[in-house]
Amino acid sequence: MRFDRIWFNARLATLAGDDLGIVEGGAVAAKDGRIAFAGPVEDLPSQRDAAERIDCEGRWITPGLIDCHTHLVFGGDRAHEFELRLKGASYEEIARAGGGIVSTVRATRAASEDELVASALPRLDHLIAEGCTTIEVKSGYGLDLETEAQSLRAARRLGRERNVAVTTTFLGAHALPPEANGDKDAYIAKVCEEMLPALAREGLVDAVDAFCEGIAFSAEQTARVFATARALGLKVKLHADQLSNLHGAKLAAEYGALSADHLEHTDEDGAAAMAKAGTVAVLLPGAFYMLRETKLPPVGAFRRHGTRMAIATDCNPGTSPLTSLLLTMNMGATLFRLTVEECMAGVTREAARALGRLDETGTLEPGKSCDLAIWNIERPAELAYRIGFNPLHARIWRGQ
To answer: 34: phi > 0 → left, psi -120 to 50 → alpha, else beta; which?
Structure first.
């Protein structure tokens, strides 16, 4: 039996294990869309040839990049709110005045599914152009069953319109819709009793998320959403401790969440709980930068406790209109002082872990999907070092 393709004369960052997994003089072989071999070329079975052999001429191969936290599907934009923030308005002030998430809800409800797909594709194409092969897309701009379902269908369609793996996350507990008249408990009841079961029955939900924050939902309301998700056999994630410490990281850990995200105000106990539960800390430097925050996430505590860390764009219309994982890596290094290794693992291995897909992608190991990024770089640090420069030579999807 022959391999379909062999990429040789390459340097590999396999990300296997707990480091970059560097292999000089490496090769990757694909069969039926899966990695059949990844390692030193001298270990490549001599009796196995391939239908196609590609000389990488010393370029680096990494796993395809993974954006594990996005809100890619939405209507409209919020450039006017950016102007307000430049004049001194806070995120919370804008939200309480009817802006923020609720303004995007109005635009998303007014859009058709085709319009949502059409507006999301350019954002997705920019990520793909930088080597992204897997992406998470959250709902949360509908806040009613019809629009949440439409948004999740649009997200699923992105994976048919482009060669990219899409995982969908239901974020019905994102904000309070205008028609709820301030009754958060009644809205959470609707999320748990009507929306989530219906969307799960339709097969539109891979995971369930919530926004646990003073301007959003309490820990008790979030726990109710998580309990419902667990009863439906769905994994959970959480927007936690972004603006204050409501102990969301610890709550996420208690429910075995795949990830807790943002985490600027997470305390030592939260970091320890996440490490013990295997909950990934997803850091979002784009939102930190855009909101001009000053409270850094507790990277030192995550390191001390062995909490896994991923980074993501948090692409959304209001607080992180970012569509570059390369810039995200630079921000993670510059703003949060992550190492190059942490940045690279954060958009590959740990991002896959944060999506519950590490058995499928995120490292160069036999049996995983053959999704590769081939780079015109001399050392991996260049991926986090450059700003506004894309050194991608080729993006391989399912071995092609």
So the answer is: beta
